C-alpha cells in the first residue's frame, strides 16, 4: 500500500531545514558537549505556580473531555488579552482554543483555503509553514523579502503573486529574522489583501517580545477584522511550550466552522491545561514582560558584541527571541558556516537557508542560554567569521 500523495509531498521533495540541528543533537547523544542556539525554547521552565494550578485542576477532576472550542473562562481571558493589546473588540465567539500555535496555523488555512488554492507566505519563513500549507491541501506560493529592506515585505511583491490566491500568511514579530513589521509595511499588506480579496493569516505568537517600536496587529487596520485570522499561543509569552495551548482569533462565523473542525480532528485541549492557561493569563502583562526580559537583556549583550567587530552584521533586531546574523562577508553560505562552526567550536546555530532562500548567507541565533554562555558563544562565532575573511 502507498501513502497519500499529500502526506508524501508534505516537505515538497526537499529537506525540512533541520539538518544542522539534527547533527548537533547526534553529537550531544554521542557525548560531545554542544552549545545550542537553535530552537526557540526558553532556558527557564514553566513557572511553578502555573504547574501547581495545572496539578490542582487535574487532581480536582478536570481530566475528561473538555469543551472543544475551549472552556469559557479561557476563551474570555484570551479575548480580553487580545482586546487590550490590539484595541480590537474581541469576544468569546471570536476565539477557538487549539493544541498549540502550530495546530492553529493548520486550522486557519483549512478555514481560508479550498484544496488546490494558492496560499502565499513570506520568505524567510518559519520552517513548518510550507508543509502546513501542503497539509491543508493548498499550493504554497513563496514571496521573497529582501535583506536590503531588513526583510520588511514590499506590498508590490505580494501583489505580484496575489492574483487568484486565497490567503497570505505573515509573522510579526518575525521568526526567524527578529524584525517587527512597521505600520507602513502592514498597511501595504492590508491594502493588497483588500484589493485581491485575500484572507490574512497573522502569526502573532511573539507579540509579547517587542524590543523596539510596537507590535501592530493587522486585524486592527481598516477593513481587516473581517478577513484576518490571528494565530496566538501560550508557548512564547508564558514559557508553556510543552503545554500545547494556542488559539485562532477571527470572525464569529469562521470560528464556528473551526469548532466543527476541532470536533473532527483534535477534539479539544485537556481541561487541566486550559485551567492553567487561565491562571497564567490572569498574572497580567507584568508576568509576560518577566518571561520576555532575558531575551531583551541578551539582545543588548549581542548588540555590544557585534558592534566591536566587522565580520558579522546584525539584521535590525526588534522582537522575538532570535537574532538574524549576516555572514556573507565570509564568502560562505549560512549552511556551510553553521556546519563549520559546529565542527570546529561545537556551537549550533540555524542556517538562514533553513528558513528559505531570502536568508541565504545568514544565521538564526536563538537567545536561549544563560547570559554569560550566550555572550561567549557570540564572541566565538564572530572570531570564527573574522578568521575566514
From TrEMBL:
Record family assignment: Belongs to the class-I pyridoxal-phosphate-dependent aminotransferase family.
Name of the protein this chain belongs to: aspartate transaminase
Class in the EC hierarchy, top level: transferase
Keywords assigned: Aminotransferase, Pyridoxal phosphate, Transferase
Gene Ontology MF annotations: transaminase activity
Record-linked CDD domains: AAT_like
Domain Aminotransferase class I/classII large: from-to ranges: 35-377
The reaction(s) this protein catalyses: L-aspartate + 2-oxoglutarate = oxaloacetate + L-glutamate
EC number(s) reported in the record: 2.6.1.1
Family matches, as PANTHER family: ASPARTATE AMINOTRANSFERASE
One matching Pfam family: Aminotran_1_2
Protein's organism: Sulfitobacter sediminis
Cofactor(s) recorded in Swiss-Prot or TrEMBL: pyridoxal 5'-phosphate
Protein origin, superkingdom: Bacteria
Keyword Disulfide bond in record: no
Amino acid at each position: 500500500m502507498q501513502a497519500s500523495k499529500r502526506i508524501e509531498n508534505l516537505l515538497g521533495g526537499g529537506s525540512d531545514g533541520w539538518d544542522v540541528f539534527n547533527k548537533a543533537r547526534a553529537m550531544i547523544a554521542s557525548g560531545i558537549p554542544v552549545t545550542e542556539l537553535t530552537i526557540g525554547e526558553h532556558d527557564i521552565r514553566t513557572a511553578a505556580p502555573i504547574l501547581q494550578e495545572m496539578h490542582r485542576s487535574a487532581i480536582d477532576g478536570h481530566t475528561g473531555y473538555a469543551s472543544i472550542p475551549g472552556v469559557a473562562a479561557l476563551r474570555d481571558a484570551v479575548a480580553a488579552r487580545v482586546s487590550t493589546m490590539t484595541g480590537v473588540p474581541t469576544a468569546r465567539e471570536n476565539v477557538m482554543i487549539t493544541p498549540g500555535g502550530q495546530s492553529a496555523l493548520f486550522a486557519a488555512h483549512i478555514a481560508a483555503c479550498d484544496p488546490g488554492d494558492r496560499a502565499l507566505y513570506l520568505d524567510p519563513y518559519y520552517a513548518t509553514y510550507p508543509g502546513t500549507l501542503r497539509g491543508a491541501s493548498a499550493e504554497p506560493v513563496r514571496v521573497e523579502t529582501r535583506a536590503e529592506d531588513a526583510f520588511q515585505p514590499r506590498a508590490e511583491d505580494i501583489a505580484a503573486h496575489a492574483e487568484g490566491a486565497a490567503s497570505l500568511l505573515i509573522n510579526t514579530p518575525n521568526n526567524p529574522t527578529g524584525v517587527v513589521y512597521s505600520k507602513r509595511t502592514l498597511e501595504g499588506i492590508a491594502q493588497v489583501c483588500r484589493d485581491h480579496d485575500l484572507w490574512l493569516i497573522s502569526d502573532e505568537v511573539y507579540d509579547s517580545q517587542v524590543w523596539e517600536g510596537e507590535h501592530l496587529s493587522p486585524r486592527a487596520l481598516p477593513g481587516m477584522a473581517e478577513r484576518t485570522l490571528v494565530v496566538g499561543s501560550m508557548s512564547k509569552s508564558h514559557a508553556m511550550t510543552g503545554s500545547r495551548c494556542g488559539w485562532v482569533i477571527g470572525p464569529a462565523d469562521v470560528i464556528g466552522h473551526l469548532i466543527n473542525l476541532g470536533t473532527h480532528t483534535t477534539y479539544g485541549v485537556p481541561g487541566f491545561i486550559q485551567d492553567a492557561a487561565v491562571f497564567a493569563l490572569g498574572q497580567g502583562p507584568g508576568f509576560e514582560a518577566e518571561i520576555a526580559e532575558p531575551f531583551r537583556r541578551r539582545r543588548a549583550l549581542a548588540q555590544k558584541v557585534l558592534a566591536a567587530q566587522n565580520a558579522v552584521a546584525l539584521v535590525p533586531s526588534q522582537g522575538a527571541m532570535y537574532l538574524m546574523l549576516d555572514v556573507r562577508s565570509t564568502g560562505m553560505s549560512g549552511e556551510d558556516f553553521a556546519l563549520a562552526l559546529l565542527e570546529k567550536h561545537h556551537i549550533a546555530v540555524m542556517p538562514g537557508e533553513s528558513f528559505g532562500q531570502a536568508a541565504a548567507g545568514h544565521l538564526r541565533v536563538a537567545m536561549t542560554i544563560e547570559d554569560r554562555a550566550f555572550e561567549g558563544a557570540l564572541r566565538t562565532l564572530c572570531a570564527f567569521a573574522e578568521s575566514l575573511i
